[in-house]
Structures are given as structure tokens and as C-alpha cells.
Design goal:
2 domains, two-stranded antiparallel ribbon, alpha+beta, 6 helices
Length: about 270
């Protein structure tokens, strides 16, 4: 199937027709560059669908290549299936962001050493209290070293503003074993408010968002190690999120290792009561 075609609202209806047409073709697009890179140029895409006997013109092919490359460049960490509606795209892109390399390798190592001290006496569990996680350890941390505190201050400023009002004092630390995964769920409004921000440490992962009222509306988000994701408002309340047990992204297998998430959340507001 054709890989993700993320449509910007400014595109014309004629362009939507081209995209819809190519979506129906049996295409096989291979990305030769790593999925965690920020951009993909046209020369890195090989299109194998144009040898079939269709009414595709050379201008159609050029348009399709330009659209596909431009849209992957715009949001390389998101994969919207062909069934994704414009509303789904707009809700996710407005309320879910991924910042690559948010912490340095040195900061990542410092955070891992510090979280390990809190986790070392805990065993991996396979029976979460609400059946949401398999193969995990978790804890809450309120005091951090100077180096880790600086990284977490940047996280809070990025996700909640420089004043970071209403942010929960305790930072949630979730350690997933290599075989661990998170099942689809929406975080309880009893424990956190409209925004959830998480650092992904030590391993890449793929998070899938599924609209609760329309389960066929899904989005895959690639979360490389050292990245920060921010999920808020519509993405936080209307979509269940999960971390896949076995994941591919844009046709590539994502190797899973032990993954530590350092998660900051704000307090529930009146509408969460």
C-alpha cells in the first residue's frame, strides 16, 4: 500500500483527487533513509507502481512524488493511513507533537542512571491494576539531581509554558521491558489533566492513537530515543493511545529494547472532574 500521505489544509480539491487515486494503486514505497531522520528527499523514494497499465501520466507521477515527499518532510514522525480523515489529521497535528533529540546523550545517560536507582528493587510486572500495561516497572520521583532537573525544567517549559503552573510535583517513571507493551487506553482524568509530556529513553517505539468513537481512525507516531512527545486536549481525551508490542513504521521494523519513559502531567481541571 502507498505510504503515509499527510495532506495540508491549503491543498486544493484537485490535489486531493490525485492523492485519492494513487492511494488506490498497489504501490510499494521504500524509504532508504532511516525513519528517525528529519526529512526524506525525492531521490530516496523508489516507486514501483508506475509500470502497471494505468492511465497515469508523467505529470501525475511527478505530482504524486512531490506531494508524498513534501508531506513526509512536513511530519516525518506521523503515519496517517489512507483511511484517515482530514479531521483526524487536524486533531492530531494540532494536539500531538514530537521534538527530536530533546535531551542529549549525556542527559539521557544521567536520567537513566537516576531512574535505575529508583527502579532497581522493583520487578517487572505483567498484571497492571487496570490491565493497561504488560511487562513494566513504575515509580514516582519528586527529587532529581541537578543535571536531570535542568532537563526536566526544559520539558515542563516546553509542554506547560515557562511558569509551568499546575504541573504535578511527582514525575512518573515507566520502565517497559523489551517484550513489554502498553495496551490502548485513555489516562484517567482523576490523575492528570489536559496535557501529558513524555521523554522516551534508551529505545525507539511506535505509539498508536485510535479514536474512541471511530476505531478505524488510527495514527502511528514514531518516538525515537531521546525525543519528547506532548499529547494534549483532543489527542489526549478523544484518542486511546498504546505502545505497540511489535512495531513497524513506514514499512520498517522498529527494534525494541528496554524503554524508560519520564512523564510529566498537569493537574486535573474543572472539566476533568
Amino acid at each position: 500500500m502507498v505510504q503515509s500521505v499527510i495532506i495540508r489544509p491549503v491543498f486544493s480539491s484537485a490535489i486531493f483527487k490525485h492523492v485519492s487515486f494513487f492511494t488506490k494503486l498497489c504501490c510499494n514505497h521504500h524509504l532508504s533513509s532511516d525513519v528517525s531522520k528529519r526529512s526524506h528527499s525525492t531521490c530516496n523514494l523508489t516507486h514501483k507502481c508506475y509500470n502497471y497499465k494505468t492511465n497515469v501520466t508523467r505529470s501525475d507521477v511527478r505530482l504524486h512524488r512531490r506531494l508524498l515527499c513534501q508531506t513526509i518532510d512536513s511530519h516525518p514522525n506521523f503515519y496517517f493511513p489512507p483511511t484517515a480523515t482530514r479531521q483526524t489529521r487536524e486533531e492530531i497535528l494540532a494536539n500531538f507533537s514530537v521534538d527530536l533529540d530533546f535531551v542529549t546523550p549525556e542527559e539521557e545517560n544521567e536520567l537513566l542512571k537516576e531512574t535505575d536507582r529508583h527502579l532497581q528493587r522493583l520487578r517487572y510486572q505483567f498484571d497492571h491494576w487496570d490491565d493497561a500495561i504488560e511487562g513494566y516497572r513504575e515509580t514516582e520521583v519528586s527529587r532529581w539531581s541537578r543535571g536531570s532537573s535542568a532537563a526536566l525544567e526544559r520539558l515542563r517549559a516546553r509542554a506547560f509554558g515557562r511558569e509551568a503552573r499546575g504541573v504535578l510535583v511527582h514525575t512518573h517513571v515507566l520502565d517497559l521491558a523489551p517484550q513489554g507493551y502498553i495496551k490502548p487506553h485513555v489516562d484517567s482524568v482523576r490523575f492528570c489533566g489536559s496535557t501529558i509530556a513524555g521523554l522516551s529513553l534508551h529505545s525507539d517505539a511506535v505509539m498508536r492513537l485510535t479514536k474512541q468513537e471511530l476505531p478505524h481512525q488510527t495514527v502511528d507516531v514514531f518516538l525515537p530515543a531521546r525525543s519528547l512527545y506532548i499529547m494534549k486536549d483532543a489527542a489526549r481525551y478523544l484518542y486511546a493511545h498504546e505502545v505497540l508490542k511489535e512495531a513497524t513504521f513506514r514499512g520498517r521494523v522498529v527494534e525494541k529494547r528496554r524503554r524508560v519513559s519520564v512523564i510529566s502531567r498537569n493537574t486535573p481541571g474543572p472539566k476533568d472532574a
